TrEMBL record:
PANTHER family: N-ACETYLTRANSFERASE EIS (PTHR37817). One of its GO terms (molecular function) is acyltransferase activity. This is GNAT family N-acetyltransferase. The active site is at residues 124, 405. Pfam families: Acetyltransf_17, Acetyltransf_9, SCP2_2. It is an enzyme of class 2 (transferase).
Length: 405
């Protein structure tokens, strides 16, 4: 018997459900001042609550965005930005009911994809989400020297808070969704991201690079973290870089050049960088760059499998027929023929069988079908069908999201 109901939340339930979410994530409820700074970013559309005796016991929140897929198409998507269940209501099916309501609603409204960042990797596979991008943590020990020939043109300037608020949304939009996995940032994303980070407490500063053509083409946020200890009082600060984006590899390299040049810094770190970012090879000594972690980043869910498969491009190989199982959205079940000319439903015999979460892992090009088959996630009629799938789904660049939500 269900002793809770799931429904879209109402205006006066916004703050109680936000409080519930931050407590589930072991954060503190926002003060009135911080809630005001968020400036309506926790908005009504896309939020389902679970209620017992009219009090919230669970929340699944999302906002509408779009996501770039291989080949350059940008598809309608929902970014699921907050899922939490009150501690005294966990393991009673609350999140299952919320995920079912949210995904069914997205399917009814014709949204093609859903995506999220997961607090734990064991939660979302059962709802058809799969790891679709990875992020690398880099640690760079100064001093470093860039190789001759690395872009040195243009200029970098620091923005004050008001300038950053005014400039960054348009700059991100102009840089564009140039890698599969990148998402559009709606207006409501920015206040939540900037208000705290750019405050005195948040401590982040913003650098913008202007290219030789006089146009701004890259930006980064960074903050200094004290590393001095009693034993090492002169240990220089660590520079934590986040949200670094550029319109071209040259613009990104020019911004790294600036960040590596800041005086007194001992170490530069950044989390969730693209796994294939060529940072080490910019330097005369590539060993100065260490990869200290590689983590799952964006989890993807194909809400409309036929629409999603038809929208991306594929490599050159003989077509493969996939049989997809989808427990939560049964309309997606069936066989799909995927080839260099596109993808469509078919009645032909299946070459490969897989679940919705595994298809999501393949979709942006992060994983090879043959690797997933080795892990028992794909059943193949022949090994050769796996090789064809590897070629069809391969992408030139690793997918990357680069936006935290
Ligand atoms: C996108 C984001 O916001 S990510 C943030 C997710 N939120 C958090 O991590 C906050 C803290 N955790 C929570 O709020 C909750 O524990 C949630 C949301 C993770 C899970 O909610 P619940 O209502 O407990 O999940 P529900 O009861 O529907 O469980 C469904 C299944 O998943 C399993 N499951 C759920 N959470 C976990 C977990 N953290 N670890 C292992 N298994 C889990 C359950 O055991 C259950 O399995 P079963 O179907 O085999 O019985």
């Amino acid at each position: 018997m269900t002793d809770f109901v799931v429904r879209p939340i109402t205006e006066d339930e916004l703050r109680p459900t936000f409080d519930l979410l931050v407590e589930a994530l072991h954060d503190r409820r926002p003060s009135d001042e911080r809630w005001a700074q968020a400036d309506g970013a926790w908005a009504l559309p896309g939020k389902f609550g679970a209620f017992a005796e009219n009090r919230p016991v669970g929340i699944a929140s999302g906002f509408a965005t779009s996501i770039a897929v291989p080949g350059g198409a940008v598809l309608p998507a929902q970014a699921v930005d907050g899922v939490g269940v009150r501690a005294d209501w966990t393991r009673r099916g609350v999140v299952t009911a919320l995920m079912t309501a949210q995904l069914t609603d997205l399917a009814d409204r014709g949204t093609t994809l859903a995506c999220l960042h997961a607090s734990e990797a064991v939660i979302y596979g059962r709802f058809g989400y799969g790891i679709a991008t990875s992020g690398r943590t880099v640690r760079v020990n100064r001093p470093v020297q860039l190789r001759e020939g690395v872009e040195a043109g243009g200029a970098v300037r620091l923005l004050d808070t008001d300038e950053a608020r005014a400039a960054l949304p348009a700059l991100y939009e102009r840089i564009g969704l140039h890698r599969p996995g990148m998402i559009a940032r709606p207006e409501t994303w920015w206040p939540m991201a900037l208000s705290y980070r750019l405050s005195r407490e948040g401590g982040y500063r913003v650098a913008v690079h202007t290219g030789p053509d006089g146009r701004d083409d890259a930006f980064a946020m960074f903050k200094s973290v004290d590393q001095a200890t009693a034993a090492e009082p002169e240990h220089g600060p660590l520079l934590e870089v986040r949200d670094l984006h550029g319109a071209s590899p040259e613009a990104i390299a020019a911004l790294w050049r600036f960040l590596f040049s800041i005086d007194l810094v001992a170490t530069v770190t950044s989390r969730f960088r693209p796994v294939d970012e060529p940072l080490g090879v910019l330097l005369t000594d590539p060993r100065r760059v260490r990869t200290t972690d590689v983590e799952d980043d964006l989890w993807l869910r194909l809400v409309d499998v036929a629409g999603a498969l038809a929208a991306r491009t594929y490599g050159d190989a003989t077509p493969v027929v996939f049989e997809v199982d989808d427990r939560l959205l049964p309309a997606n079940r069936g066989r799909y023929r995927v080839g260099p000319d596109g993808a469509e439903r078919t009645d032909a015999e299946a070459d490969l069988r897989l679940d919705a979460d595994t298809l999501a892992m393949l979709y942006l090009g992060e994983w090879r079908a043959s690797t997933l088959a080795q892990a028992g996630r794909i059943t193949a009629a022949t090994p050769e069908a796996l090789q064809r799938a590897d070629t069809l789904f391969a992408t030139a660049e690793r997918p990357w999201c680069g936006t935290y939500f």
